[in-house]
Amino acid sequence: MPIAFVTSTENEPKSVCRDYLRVQDVFPSGTSCLSDNLPTYHDLVLADITMSTADFLEQHCCAFGGGDRIFEDDLVFEQLRKVTGMSVSDFQDQHSSSQKALFWLVKEDSYPNLEDYLHIGQRFALSSIYFGLNGDLNWLECSDQADTTTCSVPNSKSAWMSGVQECEWAYLTCDRNLFVTEIIMRK
């Protein structure tokens, strides 16, 4: 049975989409939501997923109408667009650090009132750097995955991606207006 891709109509609000499941987490063999490597029923059974392949694709894969979406009218995304000028089309690459940073800002960041946050562009840029440097995996300390929220850098700064103002994150120097003036990472 052939599988058709879902396309959006002009009446649907524009959105940024990412597939729900990371390939390496669920399918170590490399199966993905990409059209040339879709999961088979056998892949789903091996991963203990109890749904049909079509249902799985419709729920988890962007190309089939599923996935995790951020719509253009989201308040945090609107604020970020005002500051950066970036549009929905700038975030379509699911492997880009900018899309990871956008999803982190909108879905995971615990900093209060981001929709009114003066420094949202700076927070986005820093989180893009973090994801671009693969901070979750490569940073030995002060990452989002660190065991503690404080780091062993001078002044006991907080880990990156924590819910505090980003000038409190390790390795950063800011001016009195809370704009980052320097990033110093020794290793």
Chain-wise SSE layout:
Layout lengths: L14 E4 L4 H4 L14 H6 L6 H8 L7 E4 L3 H10 L12 H12 L11 H13 L2 H4 L33 E3 L5 E4 L4
Antiparallel strand pairs: 1-2, 3-4
Helix pairs in contact: 5-6
Structure description:
This protein is of the alpha+beta class. It has a domain of 69 residues. Helix content is 30%, strand content 8%. It has 7 helices and 4 strands, in the order βαααβααααββ. Helix 5 packs across helix 6. The longest helix has 13 residues.
Name the poorly predicted regions: 1-9
Mean pLDDT: 84
Overall SS class: alpha+beta
Q: Report the end-to-end length measured between terminal Cα atoms.
A: 52 Å
Strand fraction band? 5-15%
Features:
187 residues; alpha+beta; two-stranded antiparallel ribbon; 7 helices; 8% strand; globular; disordered N terminus
Summarize the entry for a quick read.
This protein is α+β, with helices and mostly antiparallel strands and 187 residues long. 30% of the residues lie in helices and 8% in strands.
